[in-house]
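subagent[fold] <- orchestrator: predict structure for attached chain, return tokens only, no commentary.
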Amino acid sequence: MMSSSLIRGWSALAGAVTVLLWALPSGAAEGLPGAGQDITEIVGFVRVSGMLVSLAVIIGAVVVVRFLRSLVERLSLRFGHRRLTFQKLESFTRFFIYIVTGVATVALSFRINQAVLAILGGTMAVAIGFSLRDLVAAMIAGVTIMLDRPFQVGDRVRYAGEYGDIIEIGLRSVRMQTLDDNTVTIPNNKILTDVTSCGNYGALDMQVSVDFWVGVDQDLALAEQLLTEAIVSSRYVYLDKPVVVGIKQEMKSEQVAMLLRGRGYVLDTKYEAAFVSDVTRRVTEAYREQGILPPAVLHRQLAPIDTGGDRDQIRRARAEH
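subagent[fold] -> orchestrator:
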């Protein structure tokens, strides 16, 4: 780990040297050598002894970071209830060490004057501009979301495979609490470019669908009635809005089945899972009591077709089977 960190440190230092050596000959700024001057004058901006000290600083920073990580691991095992606090402090401290090491390395390795500061400032401005591009886009998108309001705090939303309640709309991101109690952070600019589905849009009640498949040879009228009764009698249903049951034929595991989809509204979005569980349990029990069976492969026995025989007799034979 130390060798990889050391390599990254030297890579950053070599990158800074390359930037300076590339930028210095092209500058007509005061105090800088021209493009036609000797390369030794350019190298004069680099302190060889300072680079050796910078190497020692980088090694020391790597040692401190490794010691800090080991210390946090031991403290987390000793004080488990403070583990998250220790990890946060480690992150801030490690970030501070990286910044101080970078500044010290540049200050020790180069002879700093106004021209060099101007070059470093311009390079840092470009780098910061590129790194903040997504942040600025997310902030502008956050203002757009607050004005356009595709959803509100408390709405149940489906986005990019995630499904849950919006708990916060910020300038940079939106936070969603999923039904599995996970907190999902979504950048605002991502939401504006993708499709978002909102189930209730500011209301407490929300439509929820429950699906059941039965065989094509079952009593569909009775199956529909039992599903409707289960939804209407649920303690989580909101009866001020309609309850609808739709029937559709479709293929289910290479079998023809009848899909019964019951749609009802729950009193509160937080009861969605409880509502689905309640209706599913009671409908399954009712179907079992009434002998309504799930889809199955049907084997039909048809009378042989005889073009010379009585066609009406053949039809009656098929109807009997």
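orchestrator: received. Logging for downstream: The domain at 206-290 is CATH 3.30.70.100 (Alpha-Beta Plaits). Strands lie at 156-159, 162-169, 173-178, 183-187, 197-198, 206-215, 244-252, 255-266.
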